[in-house]
Each structure stands twice: as structure tokens, then as C-alpha cells.
């Protein structure tokens, strides 16, 4: 039976990670996959996470099933983290939460439910967007359309073109938005742009689906949630996918959450039933461990403070590296305009170099970036930034 199956293209980002692991160059540099690294190039377990795991090991009493929604405590605390403790949607009981296997699980289940109720079955995604959005959303049966987002020449958001395109979307169409730290561009909407977008979404009868996978890694936990909180305030309905992979460093534990917001408490509850039914038919229920770690941290003032200080340190290191890199590129006189890297947010920016130059960096210097020229700032260190700048000077010229 399997002989009928055709070979399939690998996930380009995961493939890059595998190639990096096999590379033996002493100065090899992984700026590909979006994983945080420290000054030593390691992705450490956060101390708050290790402490929570020790507590769980000492006090956990059962591994029995928990149910399709996952842990009630995790869901409550995550809704507070994303929306803010006293948000209207929480007070009015207009949010149903589900613990999911990572942000990917949340995106897929959200898409499954939306595909069954959107009258058009269409979703608009930014051009460009995270490559994984396509299989996750189209796999659920949604038809994908693109709205203009990033101007690679000007290194700015094409906001008026984005608005013009979405103004032509049909009522019932879904719009996927990156809550913060846009992947792959690093270019985020400003508060005034979120407000204009909310007005458009309401006027056109569109359904927002916000993917917020990097809360706390841009400007701060509250600042990064401005857009998602504003939309939740302004609009009657929406869907939100979040992830604990980056801000809790729980990547392989597959920990995330999906939030469904409805018009009224009773409608939300009914839609939630449908959501849990989709979960049952996909994977029955989420893995427990990552969610238990997050719940333990968010529920304990001491661990919560430790986690926030670790998260702040990660964010500040990325911001420092953004400035370090641009300072050194400018000092070395590397050809090109890199100023956008200073003020963009999160792990990623585009370098703005050609694909051949990306390939040359990989072949000649063992420096790994995604073919588009997207690179992960958190993969750099004080030590490696000079190697990177020298390699760029050789590859693109001065
Ligand atoms: N959404 C975006 C834009 C991402 O970059 C990621 C991943 O890193 C995710 C969602 C979800 O990731 P995970 O499934 O590992 O939580
Ligand atoms: O864009 C990235 O690098 C991260 C990590 O299939 C990632 O979002 C990449 C590919 C993938 C899952 C996670």
C-alpha cells in the first residue's frame, strides 16, 4: 500500500536544524529555527521550569486522564496571561479555553472549528507568514488567501495595502493575525493600526484568528498583548492561539492554548462543546506535563516572579543583540541598510540579502539562515556576532 505514496518536501526550517546538527565546523552558527539561545549558544531549561518540575515530582499523585480541555487551572491562568486578569471577556464568561499540544495544536483545532462554521471557508494570511500556517490551516480545509503585509524594499508594513485588500474580503472570511513578534518579518502593527483593523473587521463582518506565540519576547507581556486584548474588547467573536514554547522554553513539551470568544456566555458554551468534540476526534486530550509546569509557575508568586525575570532577561538580550549587530554591521561598512533590525520585535528579522548569499553563508561559513534571509537574533552572541559580520562583509561586500 505505501508504494503509492510520493516523496514529500521536508519542513525547510526543521531540515535546516538537522543539517546544522551534522555540521562539524567549529564556528558554526544556527540562526535558523526560532529557538532562544543564551550567550553560550545553549537553550537552557528556565529555572522557574526546573523548580516547578521538582515540585510536581514531589507532589503529583496521579497520571490519570484529564479530559479534552486539559487542566482547568492552566486554562484559567493562561486566559489571564493573554487577556489580562480583569478583561471583559473573562468577566462576561465569553471565553472558552482549551489546553493544546503547542501553538500548532491550537491553530489546527481552531482552524477545524472555523472551517465548519465560516460561510466562505476562507482565511487571509499575511504575505509573508510562518510557513507552517499553510499546512495547519489548509489541512483543516480552509482556503488560503494572502493580504499584503511586508515591504521588503522599504522594510516597513504595507498597512494601507493590507487594509485595501481586507476591505474586499467577504463577510465570514477569517483573518489570521500575528499577535506580536511577527514571524518571519519582526514587523509588528502599532496600536493605532490594531484599532483601525478592529474597525475594519467589525464593519466587514470578518472573523479574527490571532496567533500569539511570542508574548513577552517583544516589548513585554502586557505590551505584546495590546492587539489581542483590543480586538477582544472591540469585537463580539474571535479565536486566539497561544504557545508556551518560547516564553516558557517548553518547546518539546508541546504546550499551548486555544481561546474561543463568543457573543454571549451561552453561545460561547455551545461553541466550546463543538471545540471539545473536535479535540476528541483529533487527539482526545492534550499532554499534561507542560501545562502542569506552567500552571505551577503562574499559580505561585515566587515562581511567577522568577519566570518573569528570566523572560525579561531573554527579551533584553535579544534587544541588545539587535543593536549590537547593527552597530557592528555599520561600523564594518557592510553593504546594505540594516536599520530596520534595531526596532523590529521578537526573534526574527530579514537580513535583506539574496538567496545565493544565504546559500554562500551556509556553504562557506556554516552560518544557517532560512532561505528567505530570515534569521534568529537569539542565535547570536557577543562572541559570534563578529564572525557573522565578517562573513557578511565577505559575502555581500562593503
Ligand atoms: N505560531 C508561530 C508564528 C510560531 O512561530 C510558532 C512556533 O514556533 C507557533 C505558532 C507554535 O509553536 P508550537 O507549536 O511549538 O507551540
Ligand atoms: O519559525 C520557527 O523557526 C519556529 C519554530 O515546523 C518551528 O516557529 C519551525 C518549524 C516547525 C515548527 C516550529
> How would you characterize the largest beta sheet?
7 strands, mixed
The string of secondary-structure elements, in order, is: HEHHHEHEHEEEHEHEHHEEHHHHEHEEH
Task: Give the overall silhouette.
Answer: globular
Q: What is the helix tally?
A: 16
Strand sequence of the main sheet, in spatial order? 2-10-9-8-7-3-4
Question: Which architecture of the largest domain does the CATH hierarchy give at level 2?
Answer: 3-Layer(aba) Sandwich
Any low-confidence stretches, pLDDT <50, length ≥5? none
Superfamily (CATH H level) name of the largest domain: Type I PLP-dependent aspartate aminotransferase-like (Major domain)
GO molecular function, one term: L-tyrosine-2-oxoglutarate transaminase activity
EC number: 2.6.1.1
GO biological process, one term: L-phenylalanine biosynthetic process from chorismate via phenylpyruvate
Subunit structure: Homodimer.
Describe the protein.
There is one protein chain. With 398 residues, this protein is an alpha/beta fold. It folds into two domains: 2-44 and 313-396, Aspartate Aminotransferase, domain 1 (Alpha-Beta Complex), CATH 3.90.1150.10; 64-287, Type I PLP-dependent aspartate aminotransferase-like (Major domain) (Aspartate Aminotransferase, domain 2), CATH 3.40.640.10. 46% of the residues lie in helices and 14% in strands. The protein contains 16 helices and 13 strands. The chain has helices spanning 12-22, 47-59, 72-83, 88-91, 102-117, 133-138, 159-166, 191-204, 221-224, 226-234, 265-282, 289-298, 301-332, 340-343, 355-365, 384-396, and strands spanning 29-30, 95-100, 122-127, 143-148, 150-151, 156-157, 174-178, 207-212, 238-243, 256-261, 348-350, 367-368, 374-376. It has a seven-stranded mixed beta sheet with strand order 2-10-9-8-7-3-4, sandwiched between helices. A two-stranded parallel sheet has the order 1-12. Strands 5-6 form a two-stranded antiparallel ribbon. Helix 6 (133-138) links the parallel strand 3 (122-127) and strand 4 (143-148). The chain is globular, with a radius of gyration of 21 Å. The mean pLDDT is 97. It binds pyridoxal-5'-phosphate and (2S)-2-hydroxy-3-(4-hydroxyphenyl)propanoic acid. Residues 11, 13-14, 33-34, 130, 132, 183 line the site of (2S)-2-hydroxy-3-(4-hydroxyphenyl)propanoic acid. This is Aspartate aminotransferase. GO terms for molecular function: identical protein binding; L-aspartate:2-oxoglutarate aminotransferase activity; L-tyrosine-2-oxoglutarate transaminase activity; pyridoxal phosphate binding. Pfam families: Aminotran_1_2.
Amino acid at each position: 500500500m505505501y508504494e503509492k505514496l510520493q516523496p514529500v518536501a521536508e519542513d525547510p526550517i526543521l531540515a535546516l536544524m538537522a543539517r546544522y546538527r551534522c555540521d562539524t565546523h567549529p564556528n558554526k552558527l544556527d540562526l535558523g529555527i526560532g529557538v532562544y539561545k543564551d550567550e553560550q549558544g545553549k537553550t537552557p531549561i528556565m529555572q522557574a521550569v526546573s523548580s516547578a518540575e521538582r515540585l510536581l515530582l514531589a507532589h503529583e499523585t496521579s497520571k490519570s486522564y484529564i479530559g479534552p480541555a486539559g487542566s482547568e487551572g492552566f486554562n484559567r491562568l493562561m486566559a489571564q496571561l493573554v487577556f489580562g486578569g480583569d478583561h471583559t471577556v473573562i468577566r462576561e464568561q465569553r471565553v472558552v479555553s482549551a489546553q493544546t499540544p503547542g501553538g500548532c495544536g491550537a491553530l489546527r483545532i481552531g482552524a477545524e472549528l472555523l472551517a465548519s462554521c465560516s460561510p466562505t471557508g476562507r482565511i487571509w494570511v499575511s504575505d509573508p507568514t510562518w510557513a507552517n500556517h499553510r499546512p495547519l490551516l489548509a489541512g483543516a480545509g480552509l482556503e488560503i488567501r494572502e493580504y499584503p503585509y511586508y515591504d521588503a524594499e522599504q522594510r516597513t508594513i504595507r498597512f494601507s495595502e493590507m487594509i485595501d485588500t481586507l476591505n474586499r474580503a467577504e463577510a465570514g472570511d477569517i483573518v489570521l493575525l500575528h499577535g506580536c513578534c511577527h514571524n518571519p518579518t519582526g514587523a509588528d502593527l502599532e496600536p493605532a493600526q490594531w484599532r483601525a483593523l478592529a474597525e475594519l473587521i467589525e464593519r466587514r463582518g470578518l472573523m479574527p484568528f490571532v496567533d500569539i506565540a511570542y508574548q513577552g519576547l517583544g516589548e513585554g507581556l502586557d505590551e505584546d498583548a495590546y492587539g489581542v486584548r483590543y480586538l477582544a474588547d472591540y469585537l463580539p467573536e474571535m479565536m486566539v492561539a497561544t504557545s508556551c514554547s518560547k516564553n516558557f522554553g517548553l518547546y518539546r513539551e508541546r504546550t499551548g492554548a486555544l481561546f474561543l470568544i463568543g457573543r454571549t456566555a451561552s453561545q460561547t458554551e455551545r461553541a466550546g462543546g463543538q471545540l471539545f468534540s473536535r479535540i476528541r476526534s483529533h487527539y482526545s486530550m492534550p499532554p499534561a506535563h507542560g501545562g502542569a509546569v506552567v500552571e505551577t509557575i503562574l499559580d505561585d508568586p515566587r515562581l511567577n516572579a522568577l519566570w518573569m525575570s528570566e523572560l525579561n532577561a531573554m527579551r533584553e538580550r535579544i534587544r541588545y543583540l539587535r543593536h549590537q549587530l547593527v552597530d557592528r554591521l555599520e561600523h564594518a561598512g557592510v553593504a546594505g541598510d540594516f536599520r530596520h533590525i534595531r526596532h523590529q520585535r521578537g526573534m526574527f528579522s530579514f537580513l535583506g540579502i539574496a538567496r545565493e548569499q544565504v546559500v554562500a553563508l551556509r556553504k562557506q561559513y556554516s552560518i544557517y539562515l532560512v532561505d528567505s534571509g530570515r534569521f534568529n537574533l537569539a542565535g547570536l552572541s557577543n562572541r559570534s556576532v563578529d564572525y557573522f559580520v565578517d562573513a557578511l562583509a565577505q559575502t555581500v561586500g562593503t
